[in-house]
Every structure is written in structure tokens, then in C-alpha cells.
Design goal:
This protein is mainly alpha-helical. It has 23 helices and four strands. Strand 1 (81-84) and strand 2 (91-94) form a beta hairpin.
Length: 623
């Protein structure tokens, strides 16, 4: 089990800065707004429009309680824990060292997403921001519930609420691509939820109902089976290869605000699930490490071949989550490093959530505001977010990568130091971001004259991405035993070079690929501007093709079996039909003959004679 921070300890108790009911307010407020949005349909059309419009405008305020909770909570204090004995089996919620930063990031991203769509005019005849706001609020409540849950039942309920509410975000536009992405997402979510439920049942049956007890339970209740179920269940949400196929389909189909929370907050629910429940084990860690590194580098190859900017960012998320998953794998293999790797994973997740959220929200911002007076501002904001994802010096990405390298120092993979492999993920991120910039630059423009919630929300996320990861990393995420913060980089010359060379290598590789394409040295399929060489969803396309072939082959086999049985039935029916016809002809012939015999009385004489002789023979034997 990975190092789970102390949820409550009397030694850490401090005078409460707020009531524990703030936890309940954070979880319930979004649900109340959704309920009112739904009940508005009972009003007259004009009244319903007015009410929904006002609720949509004020929906971003629903994240304020969670922001206050994250800022004021003292992890480990009694005021940061809430128990609801009448809910389920006795629900427990708490703010710990890992939930606090992820809670703040989720609140900021969902608040920005709700603000970005608040300008959309809601018409009675179309599905507008009312429905999108409702699904965002539902997903938000489930998302922060996964961070705050301190018992298995509350965690699973929150995780399920988040997962299935997100389907409403993916299908929002109702296009064929959105419907296909939603079908894939729902299938993957159902399989994921089933695996997680089975694992949690095993844990709770061994006495691990509370998260503080799950470590002991995981060591006794079929650890291998639990590991496999949790790998699959949380791996779907975390975008782990080969369970990542829903991400490249869902992101381009969903609105940008939904994509921002899908990539920045929801995928982190898989991370927190692993940190809470996953049993330690060297073999399990090695398997997870192999999947993590495969995703970190394979996603780069697939992403640079795409033509949709949001698809490119989706593959970037898969690559970045591979980086984070590698840290989790080290914690499984080397229990002594669990505290350091878990803290590094959370810090990197905080940085990635804000930076990737800014890039997703920036896609429509570039389309609407990349020209005129706001053009320079948009350019600087997108450039800063991109440099942060790549891990450029002095950015939050460089901070996250520095902490991660320090945490895995000395760990080797196939004879190569992991601290030497992980920087190459930044090279892949550079290639993906350059591809993203090239695709976005050639996209259509639709200028707007006035700033709105879309622009302001993006600016807010960009500003938060500059400041928040540093504050969280230096002051919030501490060692649960020594209560010490992580090491902040000193930005010496060697540190700056370590953050710079992977980006320079990525720029060099991109230049070589561009030059080879200009000279015609690359296959035409790779350089085509009309259709991606590998469609979004990559493995899913091959799987769908295989299923169609299996289905086609099965259909032909069924047709053949049906033809065989039909022919056999015909032959069997013909045989009995012929036999019946012969029987009818024999009866007719007999009846005809008997009819003639009756006229002469011969039949009666023959029958009497036979009966008489038979009777005499039987009587003679008996005497």
C-alpha cells in the first residue's frame, strides 16, 4: 500500500479555523444547483429560461467552498474531518496531505470551466450551457468526493458519480464523433467501475472499510488479485496504456471546458485511487513501470501524427500521466521511497492539471482572441503554459520534474537510471507541443470584439499555473513522518541545463522531421494534411476492425450452419413425406382390392377359414 497521509491524529490537532461542515457544503452545493436546474423545467418556458440563465451565471461560485476548504484546512486536524454516521455504512470525509492540493486544483479548473461557458446564451430550443453546467457540477461533486472520501463506500460512490456524469460532457454536441466517443467511454467506465468495486469488496471483507485500515487489509486479502483489479480500474481513468483509448476520442468531441477538467482533474482520480488502495509489490511495480514508460513515449509517436489540436493534447496527457505512473510504480517496488514518490506524483499532477487546463481552454481563446489587441496576451499565455508542460527552466514543470528526479534517484530500469529516462519525456512533450502549435496556427479564426468568460477563465488558469504549484510544492506537500517539505530547486547552472537540454533535443528532432518532410523523404501517409496516419484511438481502431472481422466470420459461420441444418431438415422432411406418400398409396391399393372382394364374398370365406384352422391347431396343442 502506498504511503497514505494521516487522516487524523490527536497530536496534530489544532484549534479549528472552520467547521467540518464546510466539507459537506463543498460536496452538496453543486448537487443543489443541479437539482434546481432540473426543477426549472417544471416552470413556464420564460421563467425556466430566466432561472437557468441566472443559475448558469452564478454556477462558478459553487467551487468557492472547496477553495476555502483547501486554503483553510489543516491536514490531520479534527476540524478537517467529517463523519456522517447515517449515510451508507457511515460515511467519512477528510482533508489530508494529498487531498488538499488536488482539491484546490479541481476547484480552480471546474470553476474556470463553468465561467468559460457562462456567456453562452441558453435557448429553449437547444441544449445550451444549462445542461453542460449541470454535468460539470455533477462531475465536480464526484471528483472532489474521490479526494475527500476516507472510506471505501464513499470513495466508490464519488468515483461512479464523476465517471458517469462525464458522459454528459463528452456527448454534449451530439455529433456522430461525440456519440461514438461516448459509447467507448461508457463501456470503458463500466468495466472500470466493475473492477474497482470487486477490489474494494475484497478490501472491505478483510477489514479495510476505512482508508486508514486498507493497507493492512490489502496485505491479506488476495493482494495479487487486488493489484490486477486496481491496475485496470484506475488505469482506465488515468489513461494508462493500453486502457487509454477513450482519451483521444473524448477530448475532441467534448467542449473545451469539459476537456480541461477531463485532462486536468478527472484523470487524477485514477492517481489518488492508486495512492489510497494499491498494495505494494515488486512484481506489480515492475508491470506498472513497463506500462507507464510505454505510454510516456508511445503517445508521442501517435500524437505528432494527429491533425486536431485537442487530439494532440490528449496524447500529451497520456504521455504525462505515464510520467506520473512511473513514480507510483517506484513506490510499489521500493516501499522506503513511497513517501517521496507519492509527494512528487501529487506535485507533478498539480502542475500538469493547471498547465494542461490552460492549453485546452486556450484552444477557443486562440480562435477568438489571437488577433488584435489581445493577440500578444494570448501568445504569451499559451507560450507560458506550453513551456510549463515541457518543463522549461523556472516554470512549474521544471519544479515538478526536479522533485520527481530527486525522488527516483538510484532506481534503474534495464540498467538505465530512471532519473535519466524521465527527462526524455520532456523531449516528447516538446515534440507534441510543437505539433500542437503548428496545427492550432493553421486552424480557422472567428474573432470576437468583446472579452467574455472564456477569455477571463483562461487568464485565471494561466495565472494560477504560475503561482499555485510552487506554493503547494514548497509548503503543502510534506513528508507525513518528518513533516518536511520537498526540496525546491536552487536553479544552479547544472539544474538549469538539466531542464533545458531535453527541450533543445525536442526542437532539434522536430527540425529534422520538418526538413525530411520538405524534401519528401518521409512517406506520404505520414505527411498528409487531410487524414491522420493513425486515427485517434489508435488501438481501438484495430480492436474494432478485429471485432468486425470476428463478427463477419461468425456471421458467415452461422449462415453456413443455418444452411446445413436447413438442407438436413429438407432432406428429413422429404424422406418422411415420401414414406407417407408410399403408405397412402399402399392403403389406397388395399382399399381398392378389398372393395372388389367384398362384392364376391371371397374375403369373408378366406378370413373364416384362417380363423378356424388357427383355432383347431391351438386347441390340439393344449390337449
Amino acid at each position: 500500500m502506498l504511503a497514505t497521509p494521516v487522516l487524523f491524529s490527536p497530536a496534530l490537532a489544532s484549534p479549528p479555523l472552520f467547521s467540518p461542515s464546510l466539507i459537506a457544503v463543498s460536496l452538496v452545493t453543486p448537487l443543489v444547483l443541479v437539482l434546481v436546474l432540473g426543477l426549472a423545467g417544471l416552470l413556464r418556458p420564460g421563467q425556466a429560461f430566466t432561472l437557468r440563465r441566472r443559475l448558469t451565471l452564478f454556477a462558478p461560485l459553487a467551487v468557492v467552498p472547496a477553495v476555502l476548504l483547501a486554503l483553510l484546512a489543516e491536514p490531520g486536524s479534527q476540524a478537517a474531518a467529517l463523519e456522517v454516521p447515517w449515510l451508507l455504512f457511515g460515511a467519512h470525509f477528510a482533508v489530508d496531505l494529498y487531498a488538499r492540493p488536488l482539491l484546490l486544483i479541481a476547484a480552480l479548473l471546474y470553476g474556470a470551466g463553468l465561467l468559460a461557458i457562462s456567456w453562452i446564451k441558453l435557448r429553449d430550443t437547444e441544449r445550451g450551457s444549462g445542461a453542460l453546467s449541470a454535468f460539470l457540477l455533477l462531475s465536480y461533486s464526484g471528483n472532489i468526493g474521490t479526494y475527500l472520501a476516507a472510506d471505501a463506500a464513499s470513495f466508490y460512490l464519488s468515483f461512479a458519480l464523476m465517471s458517469f456524469s462525464a458522459a454528459g460532457l463528452v456527448i454534449h454536441y451530439r455529433t456522430p464523433a461525440a456519440r461514438r466517443a461516448t459509447r467507448v467511454y461508457l463501456v470503458m467506465s463500466v468495466l472500470s467501475e466493475t473492477a474497482i468495486l470487486a477490489a474494494l469488496i475484497l478490501l472491505t471483507s478483510a477489514g479495510g472499510f476505512l482508508l486508514t485500515d486498507s493497507a493492512d487489509a490489502a496485505g491479506t486479502a488476495h493482494p495479487g488479485l487486488i493489484q490486477g483489479l486496481l491496475f485496470f480500474g484506475f488505469g482506465v481513468k488515468a489513461g494508462t496504456v493500453p486502457l487509454h483509448v477513450w482519451l483521444p476520442l473524448a477530448h475532441p468531441a467534448a467542449p473545451p471546458a469539459a476537456s480541461a477538467v477531463l485532462s486536468g482533474a478527472m484523470v487524477k482520480a485514477g492517481l489518488i485511487g492508486w495512492l489510497r488502495f494499491l498494495p505494494e509489490g515488486e512484481t506489480a511495480g515492475a508491470v506498472l513501470m513497463a506500462l507507464a514508460l510505454t505510454g510516456a513515449f508511445a503517445a508521442v509517436v501517435l500524437g505528432v501524427l494527429q491533425h486536431d489540436p485537442k487530439v494532440v493534447l490528449a496524447y500529451s496527457t497520456i504521455s504525462q500521466m505515464g510520467f506520473i505512473t512511473a513514480l507510483v510504480a517506484v513506490g510499489l517496488m521500493v516501499p522506503e521511497l513511497q513517501a517521496a514518490t507519492s509527494a512528487a506524483a501529487v506535485i507533478y499532477a498539480v502542475h500538469h492539471g493547471l498547465a494542461k487546463g490552460a492549453l485546452f481552454l486556450g484552444v477557443p481563446v486562440v480562435k477568438h482572441y489571437a488577433r488584435g489587441r489581445t493577440g500578444i496576451l494570448v501568445l504569451l499565455g499559451m507560450l507560458g503554459a506550453g513551456l510549463a508542460v515541457a518543463g522549461a527552466p523556472l516554470t512549474s514543470g521544471a519544479f515538478g520534474k526536479y522533485v520527481s528526479k530527486e525522488a527516483v534517484s538510484g532506481i534503474q530500469v534495464l540498467g538505465v537510471g530512471l532519473d535519466q529516462l524521465l527527462p526524455l519525456v520532456a523531449t516528447g512533450s516538446t515534440l507534441l507541443l510543437l505539433r500542437f502549435a503548428a496545427v492550432l496556427w493553421t486552424a480557422d479564426r472567428d474573432p470576437r470584439r468583446r472579452a467574455d468568460g472564456e477569455l477571463f477563465s483562461w487568464l485565471g488558469v494561466c495565472a494560477a499555473g504560475i503561482v499555485v504549484p510552487w506554493v503547494i510544492g514548497a509548503r503543502w506537500v510534506t513528508d507525513p513522518v518528518q513533516a518536511e517539505g520537498v526540496a525546491v530547486p536552487s536553479w544552479e547552472r547544472s539544474t538549469l541545463w538539466d531542464a533545458t537540454w531535453p527541450i533543445l533535443l525536442g526542437v532539434l528532432l522536430a527540425g529534422l522531421a520538418w526538413g525530411a518532410a520538405r524534401r519528401g523523404w518521409l512517406p506520404a501517409r505520414l505527411t498528409s494534411s487531410e487524414k491522420a496516419a493513425i486515427p485517434p484511438g489508435d488501438l481501438l481502431v484495430a480492436e474494432e476492425s478485429l471485432l468486425r472481422r470476428v463478427g463477419s466470420g461468425g456471421g458467415r459461420a452461422l449462415d453456413g450452419a443455418h444452411g446445413f441444418t436447413h438442407a438436413a431438415a429438407q432432406r428429413w422432411g422429404s424422406f418422411w413425406s415420401s414414406a407417407a406418400q408410399r403408405g397412402r398409396r399402399g392403403v389406397s391399393w388395399t382399399e381398392a382390392r378389398l372393395g372388389r372382394w367384398e362384392s364376391t364374398g371371397l374375403t369373408l370365406v378366406v378370413l373364416l377359414s384362417v380363423v378356424t384352422v388357427a383355432t383347431m391347431l391351438i386347441a390340439g396343442r393344449s390337449l
